[in-house]
């Protein structure tokens, strides 16, 4: 009997059934939950739909979220295109079944949406699918089951040295402290003052609003650890960790020049690793995910903790007609000097 994959708009998705499928899937990860997608894909320029296989009782067996972004030129809506949102490194097909063929889901996505600006998936597409580009990417992870002593031994010499310096300063300086918080505003201020100018196109207010809304929702669900490193009463670095299931994600961070020179983020990351190392469910070994970006210097910093690379795949495709492609190029030209929205 043929299995039917349905594409459901957000208002037709049963959130309880969807989230139960994510939680009981073999691919479980924070990014797939309906409430998380609702936050990182805010209206009016973003939305998501779901590809769903359900059984006869309505229980979702396999699902795939498809993130969409609205393309607009001169105030005219052109199309909804598949586009990866911020704070969502990759998605994929989530299934209760042990064996999974994600290709029918990828095929349905391509058939329904003729343009994929970029989408990152945990599963690798095969050559039978007509993606214009498939690029391997990686995030950096640490297996925490081996315990802290073993993890620490795999830190590079420079990382160990910088950590010792940070610990020494923390233990001898009465004006250097670490505090826990649920307030994201200092973290956002640090990012705005020290990092935003290095982002191509800049960062607009809605992106900061996404972080605020994430912190609120994650705090309600007891999934968040937000810590600040302070010197002389001034916050110089902050780190936002999220633990859901067997994965701790280093979701967001920022630091001042003082925080960087004093290795504050090294100290904050190491503290979280040290606290969680060795805590495992027998069926789900705990993993620390640095959520690595493309920037080489940051990747090298994460590699210095002795990480391994975990792959995912970025896909693009274009089946637009000539007129639509002209509009798409016009949009790119219009937006080339504008901020991210």
Automatic annotation (TrEMBL):
<keyword id="KW-0012">Acyltransferase</keyword>
<feature type="domain" description="BioF2-like acetyltransferase">
    <location>
        <begin position="159"/>
        <end position="277"/>
    </location>
</feature>
<dbReference type="Pfam" id="PF13480">
    <property type="entry name" value="Acetyltransf_6"/>
</dbReference>
<keyword id="KW-0808">Transferase</keyword>
<protein>
    <submittedName>
        <fullName>GNAT family N-acetyltransferase</fullName>
        <ecNumber>2.3.1.-</ecNumber>
    </submittedName>
</protein>
<dbReference type="GO" id="GO:0016746">
    <property type="term" value="F:acyltransferase activity"/>
</dbReference>
<dbReference type="InterPro" id="IPR038740">
    <property type="entry name" value="BioF2-like_GNAT_dom"/>
</dbReference>
<dbReference type="InterPro" id="IPR016181">
    <property type="entry name" value="Acyl_CoA_acyltransferase"/>
</dbReference>
């Amino acid at each position: 009997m043929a299995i039917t994959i349905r594409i459901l708009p957000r208002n037709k998705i049963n959130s309880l059934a969807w989230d139960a499928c994510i939680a009981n899937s073999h691919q479980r990860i924070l990014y797939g939950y309906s409430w998380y997608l609702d936050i990182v894909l805010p209206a009016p320029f973003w939305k998501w739909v779901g590809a769903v296989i359900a059984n006869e009782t309505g229980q979702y067996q396999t699902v795939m979220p498809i993130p969409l972004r609205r393309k607009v030129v001169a105030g005219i809506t052109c199309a909804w295109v598949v586009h990866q949102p911020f704070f969502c490194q990759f998605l994929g097909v989530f299934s209760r079944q042990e064996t999974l063929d994600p290709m029918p889901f990828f095929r349905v996505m391509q058939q329904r949406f003729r343009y994929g600006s970029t989408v990152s998936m945990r599963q690798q597409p095969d050559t039978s699918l007509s993606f214009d580009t498939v690029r391997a990417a990686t995030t950096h992870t640490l297996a925490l089951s081996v315990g802290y002593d073993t993890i620490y031994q795999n830190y590079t010499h420079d990382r160990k040295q910088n950590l010792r310096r940070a610990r020494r300063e923390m233990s001898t300086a009465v004006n250097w402290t670490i505090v826990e918080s649920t307030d994201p505003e200092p973290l956002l201020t640090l990012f705005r003052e020290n990092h935003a100018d290095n982002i191509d196109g800049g960062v607009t207010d809605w992106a900061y609003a996404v972080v605020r809304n994430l912190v609120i929702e994650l705090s309600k669900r007891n999934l968040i650890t937000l810590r600040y490193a302070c010197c002389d009463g001034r916050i110089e670095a902050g780190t936002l960790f999220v633990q859901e299931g067997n994965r701790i994600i280093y979701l967001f961070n920022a630091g001042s020049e003082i925080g960087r020179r004093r290795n504050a983020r090294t100290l904050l990351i190491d503290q979280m690793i040290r606290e969680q190392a060795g805590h495992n469910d027998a069926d789900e070994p705990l993993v620390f995910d640095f959520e690595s970006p493309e920037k080489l210097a940051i990747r090298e910093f994460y590699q210095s903790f002795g990480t391994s690379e975990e792959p995912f795949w970025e896909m693009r495709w274009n089946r637009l007609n000539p007129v639509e492609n002209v509009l798409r190029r016009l949009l790119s030209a219009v937006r080339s000097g504008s901020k991210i929205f």
